[in-house]
Amino acid sequence: MSTINTTAQSRPPAALPPAGEAYLAVIESLGRYYDALYYGDIERLRRAFHPAATYATASSGELLQLDLDAYLPVVAARASPASRGDPYGFALEAIEFAGPTTALARMRSSMLGKRFVDVLSLLNVDGEWRIAAKVFHYEASAVTGEP
Fold first, then answer.
1. What is the pTM of this model?
2. Residue closest to 109 by CA, chosen among 29, 28, 21, 4
């Protein structure tokens, strides 16, 4: 399992101690998500997202919004970053908690010839943190693997 690079800007919420359980659980969930994305593991991606999750961007100038059943085949149809030899590079910028079951994470990554900024809304449902919405921006990049 790969490790997410955390920056100095990422910090636990003020309401929890520095190694708060919720903060660490969200980081673990994000790590599982990015591992699944990097290796193109569709079943692990399905478990990372809430079944009613939304995937959305307007980076191309038009809204692209998919539900989970439409998003997963897109990932399945492309070569995974791992199979392309892309370096593993995901960086956590921040996690903010709105309450004990709601978190917002901001991540950066580079893969598949693009640089991404992901804003991920996570919910703790039945004791498990899952992505409820992925809203992101991307730009073409000549360099991959540098978050």
1. 0.82
2. 4
Domains, the chain, ordered by start? 5-140 (3.10.450.50)
SS3 79: coil
Question: Rounded to whole angstroms, how far apart are CA atoms 43 and 68?
Answer: 12
CA within 13 Å, CB half, 98: 9
Residues of the chain with pLDDT under 50: 1, 7-10, 12-13, 16-19, 144-147
- Residue 122: both structure tokens together: 């996570």
- Return all residues near 111 (Cβ < 8 A) that are at least 6 apart: 38, 81, 86, 89, 144, 145
Q: How many angstroms separate the first and last alpha carbons of the chain?
A: 18
Q: Per-residue pLDDT tens for 96-130? A: 999 889 999 999 999 999 999 999 999 999 999 99
